[in-house]
UniProtKB/TrEMBL annotation:
Lineage: Bacteria, Bacillati, Actinomycetota, Actinomycetes, Pseudonocardiales
Superkingdom to which the source organism belongs: Bacteria
Domain Heparin-sulfate lyase N-terminal: 99-317
Stretches assigned to the Heparinase II/III-like C-terminal domain: 431-656
Single GO MF descriptor: lyase activity
Keyword annotations of the record: Lyase, Periplasm, Signal
Protein source organism: Actinomycetospora rhizophila
Name under which the protein is recorded: Alginate lyase family protein
Localization terms from the record: Periplasm
Length: 722
């Protein structure tokens, strides 16, 4: 860590919070790392000579390149035979790929939702033309990417070199030498401009690992291009080997060992598998794959949910595992091991859960963070979506649910071509499901999907990519979100967006005193986590009952319990929230606010008698009716309205958002007793008809009874006493 005397007070506070999230072993480990980094400032971080690199004096680089071109003793992903099969099966996708490659020829790049950037001359790998910022040419450990130089995500994305596989594919598919020449020229220029350990591109082993995958896959596709000379191959191998050492030496540990560790290990394994001539290759592969097997068990939970509680990162993590599993499977000299089985099992169980989640037509939930990361970017799509990922997983595992729910793209097409897998569809229909380890209930009825988040905040002590969304509810009908998660917003470019999109008030749950359920300690740090207790999940009845303790820290401690009643034979969903004071303080529960974030395509009618009607294209698709045990009033806001602040926005891409409606009820308790809020979410044809308000009966026996009318008639829901 830098000396605290040189930091602004806000940074001192952040470091203090970060230290509190570490255990004693992590603090000691990080102190040793700081000492080793300081030593390298004196001694430097030099590349080894060729003899050390390859374990032999005077290596013949022409012969080594010949082995690489022939695919000797290593797997091959991009080759000419497979290119022909891919082109024949996916002509439209190939057209899109060639258009993307042509943009790269013109040095035009688009990342996230930022506008396109163009370099009029050679690509300047340290310069962000959108922000007009040049990152300093310092030792990478001396660069503070949070110091406001610019948008680090943008410059990192450029330096991942994930456009090089596009150029390599374009060369294989067309034979046009311009694509291969451009790719090799850019790689040569990148190596010259970014010596190991210097510049923003080397800031973090994670970036090094992800970049290694792109570079090596591209080099394989360019293996027989005339511009790939032995000297160029030598420089690339030396750079990749230097990065591999960093991936292991500087790998993420302890509370930081999330998807970053998987990326570092996957990059190390890829270098080892595709460059077996390296002296350390066998050891690197063994260590990386063994460690990946451990992370596969940790980061993909037994029920298939990603431990980070973020759908985007689950896909990213599973695909990093898939890159290594695929290369090992294609390696002609490899005998399958238990670790291979562990990787494939993790990919399979993740795909099984994701297929349950999206079914054959449901939208992808935007739970937790999503930085649009690609493990292997062969298709030019701007984001990595769940359905193409499922097609990849199906090609690797053969899982029928993944094949049925997946949508083939160039990435899965290359994998299927190399593995010789057939695009056959197995029998599978989505239904309700409960992922008990990850904490998600999926309640299905016809074309309606109701999600209830009963999981933890996130992974490890910092829960970096989780949101304060305990007990949040999502509703989708006919393949469209009605109530959902508004997404990520921003990472670095807009700090206010970052804070708002992680907050409780931005999610379909309840805020007490407008506080967050969990406590933010920084943009990727939570210092206090709400804990969820699941009381009951009954999939047949469509009922979920759970509570969280995040508001016990308030001056008047409160427990939030939520019961969701979504009968499979009814178009109406009842949500009952019970906010109970803890202890004998005698104070009323602080103000309570329910929030229902509506998809931005929905327009609202005027509120009448506490009822909200949302329309899509003029047709009513959702009616929200609320009652409470204490005085209540409806509220609504839309992004950009006066007083809305940073709420009322829906983010479908990182660094982009659209205004949407947030609606709900505010309840002010006057007595020291539980506050009960009952909300009807009326969908389908019933949304076009007035719905009676639910009747809340607190009950003297401690049980809460709610009488309500569904589309099939009167119903009653009982929330048992605590």
């Amino acid at each position: 860590m830098p000396g605290l005397h040189s930091l602004a007070p806000a940074k001192v506070t952040w470091y203090a919070r970060r230290l509190r999230s570490m255990g004693p072993r992590e603090v000691a480990d990080r102190a040793l790392t700081v000492g080793a980094t300081a030593a390298r400032r004196v001694t430097g971080d030099h590349e080894p000579d060729d003899a050390t690199l390859l374990g032999r004096a005077d290596p013949d680089w022409a012969a080594l390149l010949g082995d690489f071109r022939a695919g000797t003793a290593r797997p091959v992903l991009l080759d000419r035979a497979s290119a022909a099969a891919v082109a024949a099966a996916h002509p439209e996708a190939v057209k899109e790929l060639l258009a993307a490659a042509d943009r790269v020829l013109e040095h035009r790049f688009t990342f996230f939702a930022h506008p396109e950037a163009r370099y009029d001359g050679p690509v300047d790998w340290s310069y962000d033309p959108l922000a007009d910022v040049r990152w300093p040419a310092l030792p990478s450990h001396a660069i503070n990417h949070r110091a406001g130089h610019g948008e680090p995500k943008w410059i990192w994305e450029l330096n991942r070199l994930q456009h090089l596989p596009w150029l390599a594919q374009a060369w294989l598919l067309t034979g046009d030498e311009r694509y291969g020449t451009e790719a090799l020229d850019q790689l040569e220029a990148w190596i010259a401009a970014n010596p190991p350990g210097r510049g923003i591109a080397w800031r973090g082993a994670f970036e090094i690992g992800v970049r290694a995958i792109s570079v090596l896959v591209a080099l394989q596709g360019l293996a027989d291009h005339p511009a790939l000379t032995p000297e160029r191959y030598r420089r690339a191998v030396r750079m990749l080997a230097a990065g591999a050492r960093r991936c292991w030496r500087d790998r993420s540990k302890h509370s930081s060992a999330n998807n970053h560790l998987v990326g570092e290990l996957a990059g190390l394994a890829t270098v080892a598998i595709l460059l077996p001539e390296l002296a350390s290759a066998a050891r690197w592969e063994r260590d990386a794959v063994d460690a990946l097997a451990v992370e596969a068990r940790r980061q993909i939970l037994p029920d298939g949910v990603g431990a980070e509680q973020a759908v985007g990162y689950q896909v990213f993590t599973a695909e990093l595992l898939a890159v290594v599993a695929l290369l090992r499977r294609l390696d002609p000299g490899h005998a399958p091991t238990a670790a291979d089985g562990t990787l494939l099992a993790a990919i399979g169980r993740s795909a099984g859960h994701l297929a349950d989640l999206v079914g054959t037509g449901d939208p992808t939930p935007r739970t937790g963070d999503d930085d649009e990361g690609f493990a292997l970017r062969l298709d030019p799509a701007p984001t990595r979506e769940v359905r193409p990922h499922l097609a990849l997983a199906a090609a690797l595992t053969g899982l029928p649910a993944a094949r049925r729910a997946g949508t083939s793209d160039l990435t899965s097409a290359w994998i299927a071509a190399r593995l010789g897998t057939k695009d056959t569809t197995g029998a599978w229909e989505p239904g309700s499901a409960h992922a008990a380890d990850g904490g998600l209930a999926i309640l299905r009825s016809g074309r309606r999907r109701v999600l209830v988040d009963v999981g933890p905040l996130g992974y490890l002590s910092i829960a970096a990519h989780g949101h304060a969304d305990a007990l949040a509810v999502g509703v989708a009908v006919d393949g469209h979100d009605l109530v959902g998660d508004p997404g990520t917003g921003s990472y670095f470019a807009h700090p206010d967006w970052r804070t708002a999109h992680r907050s409780t008030r931005a999610h379909a749950t309840v805020a007490v005193d407008d506080a967050d359920q969990s406590v933010m300690g920084g943009p990727f740090l939570w210092t206090e986590h709400a804990g969820v207790r699941v009381r009951d999940v009954d999939l047949a009845a469509g009922r979920v009952d759970a509570e969280h303790d995040g508001y016990r820290r308030l001056e008047v401690p409160v427990v939030h319990r939520r019961v969701v009643d979504a009968p499979p034979d009814d178009d109406v969903v009842l949500v009952v929230d019970v906010l109970s004071p803890v202890g004998e303080g005698g104070e009323p529960v602080p103000p309570v606010r329910t929030t229902w974030p509506l998809h931005p395509d929905l327009a609202l009618d005027e509120t009448v008698d506490g009822t909200v009607v949302a329309r899509r294209d003029g047709e009513p698709v959702l009616r929200i009716v609320t009652s409470a045990s204490a005085p209540a009033s409806g509220w609504r806001l839309r992004g950009g309205d006066p007083g809305a602040g940073e709420l009322g926005w829906w983010s479908e891409r990182l660094e982009q958002r659209r205004p949407c409606w947030f609606v709900g009820a505010q309840v002010a308790a006057t007595r020291a007793e539980p506050v009960i809020v009952a909300t009807l979410l009326v969908t389908g044809a019933a949304a076009d008809r007035p719905a009676p308000s639910p009747i809340v009966d607190p009950g003297r026996d401690g049980a809460v009874r709610v009488h309500w009318t569904g589309s099939t008639g009167p119903r009653a829901t009982v929330v048992g006493s605590r």
